[in-house]
Amino acid sequence: MIHISTRKDGIETKKKILTVCVQLFLEQGYKQTTISQIVKKAGVARGSFQNLFSTKDAILMELVGTMFSGQFGVAKNIVGDNMSPIYTYAVETAIQITLTELNENLREIYIEAYTMPETAEYIYVHTTAELKQIFGSNFPGYTESDFYEMEIGTSGIMRNYMARKCDIHFPLYHKLRRFLTAAMRVYKVPEEEQAKVLAFIRSLDIRAIATEVMYKLFAMLEMTFDFKLSKDDEMGETR
C-alpha cells in the first residue's frame, strides 16, 4: 500500500506542477517563467520538482505531447471515417497554427517547441509515421526516413507561419491557405484535391475548434483558467 500511495502522490504532484506551468506560461510567457516561481506557486519542494522534471524544458516536452494528442483527436473527430486522411492532416495543422493566434504566450510555447532540439525531434518523430500513412501512396518506395526528412522542412514552414502574427492584411484563413498549399504541394496532393481541402478548412470555425483544444487541456488538468484570447480585430478575418 505504501508503494501505491507514493505513486499516487507523485501523480498528483506532477499534475499540480503541470497545472501551475500552464497558468504561468499563458500569463507571463514560457521564457519569463522560472523554476522558483513554479515550485512556489505549486507549493512543492524543489527536490520533488526535480524528481519529476529535470528541467523546465522537460515540462514543455510533457505539454507538447499532451497538446499534440488532443489536437489530433479533435481533428479525427471533425473529419470522421468517410473522408481522406489528408483532411485530418489539414485540420490538425490548421488547429496548431490557430492556437498560436489565441494568446501571444501560447504562440511562444509553440515556437519554442518547434525550436528546441528535444521537442522539435519529438514533433518530427511523432508526425513521420502519420505522414507516411497519409501520403505514402504518392511516394512509392519512400521509407519513414524520407518522410522524416520532409517533415523537417514542412515543420520549418509551420514554425515561420506561427511566428508571424495575423493582422488585417494577413488574416488567419490567408495564413492557413498559404501553409496548407505549400505543405500539400510538398506531399504531391493533386491541385483539385487541394482546392477541396482548403474549402473544407474555410467552412470550419477553426478558432472555436482551437479554443476547444485548449479547454480540453484545462479540463484534463482540472483547472479553471480563463486565459486572454486575442480580440477579433487582432485576428483579422477568420472565415
TrEMBL record:
Molecular functions (GO terms): DNA binding
Domain HTH tetR-type residue range list: 11-71
DNA-binding region(s), chain positions: 34-53
InterPro entries found in the cross-reference section: Homeodomain-like_sf, HTH-type_Tx_Regulator, HTH_TetR
One Pfam family this sequence matches: TetR_N
Keywords: DNA-binding
Top-level taxon of the source organism: Bacteria
Protein name, entry field: TetR/AcrR family transcriptional regulator
Organism the protein comes from: Hominimerdicola aceti
Taxonomic lineage of the native organism: Bacteria, Bacillati, Bacillota, Clostridia, Eubacteriales
